[in-house]
Amino acid sequence: MAKIDPIKPHIEENFFTPEEYASIYKSVQDTMDIGMKEANDPWLHFRKNTNNGFLVIFFSERRHGSLPGLSKEVEDKIRKKFEEKTGGPVDHIGILWARYSPLSGEIPSLYPHQDRSETHTAYMFTIELDKTLDWDFYVEDDKFEMKKNQAIWFSGTNQAHWRPDKYFGDEDYYDILLCQTHHGEDENPLEEEHYLDGDDHATEVAQKYAHLLQQTLEKSMRLQGPCQ
Ligand SMILES: [Fe+2]
Fold this sequence. Notes:
The chain is of the alpha+beta class.
């Protein structure tokens, strides 16, 4: 199989149908309801990630559990989109829903980084779902002014991606769905050297855009560990 190239970052508008959208939020709301019932805490079954400043559900881990997962319709839609994009079958698909919010215990941020979460060149997209404020998304130097239900396709293992500082009040939130896989016929696993070069490159991007990342850089000094 020829080498699989990273995706050229691009937008896909109107990703989910209204029914699919409602179905995703039903899974989120059901998760909150269970937490309320069990411990009077809607966030009980979300993981708090302070490095990103979000509350997260790893939907791909819920396929065999008792907590609410995504509907078959939504899972099938995501798989179909990946198969269209790769031109062939895909195996595993990672899906997370995240709410960036100060309720996570930290300010929301997306420090420039390349992902280590795929063993091969990633096919991924982030979709803006619900929100109280606008927040741009960057892949390298390309700025995407996000809109609801708009996906950005990119290869997070190979391209530094990030968001500029954004002030979130206590009531503010910004929801995304992030989905990822790799090409089913990619026979070239990424080496450790690739990931290390990616870390160096992301640091260069962070320095280049330091004027847009003051809070984010300050936070990364305070906290250790990677973001997702
Ligand atoms: Fe990432």
